[in-house]
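Lecture 7, part 2: worked example. A protein chain together with adenosine-5'-triphosphate.
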Amino acid sequence: MADLMDALTSLAKRRGIVFPSSEIYGGLRSSWDYGPLGVELKRNIRNAWWRTMVQLRDDIVGLEAAIMMSPRVWEASGHVAGFSDPLVECVNCHQRFRADHLPGFHAPQSGHEEDQSTVDMATKPRCPSCGNDRFTEPRSFNLMFKTYMGPVEEDAATVYLRPETAQGMFVDFQVVQQTNRLKIPFGIAQIGKSFRNEITPGNFIFRTREFEQMEMEYFVEPGADEEWFEYWVNQRLQWYVDLGVRKDNLRLRPHDPDELAHYAKAATDIEYEFPFGWSELEGIANRTDFDLRQHQQFSGQDLSYYDQENDRRYLPYVVEPAAGVDRALLVFLLDAYRVEEAPTGSGGTEKRTVLALHRELAPIKVAVLPLSRQESLVPEARRVHDLLRGKWMTKYDDAGSIGRRYRRQDEVGTPYCVTVDFDTLTDRQVTVRDRDQMTQDRLPIDSLVGYLRERLP
Ligand code: ATP
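Predicted complex, written out as structure tokens:
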């Protein structure tokens, strides 16, 4: 299974989907750049989420809040005081780790030194780097990136890079509600970058320090929160299934009461079976009225909602589905990656690598391939390409044998390849090859757009 991660990381690099950032300088640990195909895939993920969460709904609107917000926001939200992970250092190699991620680690009770000799050897945590079993005491490490605004580096000018997009929706709750005359229940959705100074980033783009979130805060009447929580857990799980992720690779994991975040009454993770084990893909939380109450107190502004029908005011409860764009992208790639035996033209078989991505997500929808580079074919092939490029993301490729070009498109998940050959010049027909079935349909150029419209988003 670990091989799958290596194979995918190498495909992503080889095809310019995702690769290490600033590599000419040796890279920057945990920073990744998305190349031409990666940006398309990422944009398709964002669009699919936006379509489901905003475009197709009457009750959810969008927002794009600033990354740098008033530092008071993070005091009110509890992030300044409490957004930290337990950090330990290996006393031998001095590498640092997030203690709760070390198998077998259990934090010593406050005021008591942990007696290592009483810990069962089988479960004793060991340094993933050197194997040593002695660590420093865990200390709280705040995950927020701090910077300065303006020319003076002093405390008064401290700002943070947001560690979640959610606070934008709370701080702007009232202005969005009033300017759009929204009635509860309603939601505010946002997609944008978040930053966390993670102690142990890793597993490719699974955990990075700069990442993108897709979050939606759904404001409901207190008392209706539990029902809406169930609703959103199911909706969000279904979203991944609808986009082709295999059900067996997904599961729901409700949080135990003692692992709940400080703001949450309930939380359930949608987990995926990654090559390194089951881990969180998306989290759904019942945040109660915690955030609005805190902002009301810290800002001194009344943030209550006026329920006109019942002539009463209240602070709404909030149900939040919070997903990561990069983490979802990793899941879509892992789940779509296949290596299969495929028939060759000469009657044998060969290995083909294919990304069986959902059509909505595929970075390129159609590739146009002239059978050869011969001059007589090029103008016709270019015309076919021009016919399609305004409607879908397309690629014109005339380099190498046709078999190799099919493989190149399979490897990045292109659902259709349209081949223009010498017969096209007389019969005005092209061949359309299907990525998954590998079947080939011959059809008139005049029917091509209609044919693809039936099959592509
Ligand atoms: P963890 O416990 O793994 O640190 P979390 O529970 O703190 O994660 P949330 O605050 O619930 O994560 O964030 C919502 C979503 O944002 C996650 O499910 C994940 O998809 C994404 N996400 C969070 N942190 C990162 C990160 N460091 N890198 C990439 N994606 C992230």
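Residues 164, 196, 198, 207-208, 211, 213, 280-283, 322-324, 326-327 surround adenosine-5'-triphosphate (CB under 6 Å). The radius of gyration is 26 Å. Keep this in mind for problem set question 3.
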